[in-house]
Amino acid sequence: MPPTLYIVATPIGNLEDMTYRAVRILGEVDLIAAEDTRHSLKLLSHFGISRPMTSYFDHNQQFKGERILNALRQGKSVALISDAGTPCVSDPGYQLVRDAVAENITVIPIPGACAAMAALSASGLPTDTFTFAGFPPSRQGKRRSFLKEMAPLPGTLVLYEAPHRLEETLLDIREVMGERQIVVARELTKIYEELVRGSVSEVVESVSRGKVRGEVVILVAPGETMAQKCEPLADLLRQLMVNDKLSVKDAARKAANITGVSRNEAYGEALKLRTDLDL
Ligand code: SAM
What we know:
11 helices, Cobalt-precorrin-4 Transmethylase, domain 1, binds S-adenosylmethionine, 3 domains, alpha/beta, 5-stranded mixed beta sheet, Methyltransferase, Cobalt-precorrin-4 Transmethylase, Domain 2
């Protein structure tokens, strides 16, 4: 094998989600760097894999990263795995990949399970555009500021959260983003897998009744799009032009003042309405 750093996804609960390729690569590399070697040993022995291992976790990243890079520089192949899912996704690995890339070392992803993607795919929320934002800050003030920044983004928002913070985070989502549709995907691929769907208040009710336990992904439906925001403009213009019998120009000026959209936009919409309504 040429010196290569493999980023290998492992199951997030169900061992059947291990890919054939992951098993082969892990069985072939010179070294496996694991977030928690004892935890990963169980997975590796399940698949009959026995290769030299080293730990690579948040607090030894700098020191261990250098040793792993040294192994790669010496022509060895290394596979990085985390406790569950795809390394580097809210898990250690980014710095190692960045440093390997800087040294022109080949980095190859071995794709597989990822809680965020699994949850999004089954959520029923829009998937064409989404933001994965990892774990929200644990302190309420910072969490609310973080959610404020996320609120206007288009598409579905995908968050990881610790089960004991789920309820307070959902309450902050309601406070900052309003009563959006959300999905809480818990224990994905495991026996008690469940996707709880509803408005934030409905899901909070399930959570506070102690119904949602275990690992969770939170998905928040997008807020109003610009097009949706413009609907009240059309309604208002219709009222001004049909009921109040204002001219296109006057209706546009008044609607722009009321809604805050530009006069040009209101004028364009009013012209369209005049044609549509045959006024
Ligand atoms: N790298 C992992 C991945 O690819 O999904 C994520 C690691 S992150 C440290 C752990 C978080 O992922 C959990 O707190 C939870 O939010 C989410 N997660 C992991 N496994 C899950 C599962 N089976 N069901 C729901 N969420 C899960």
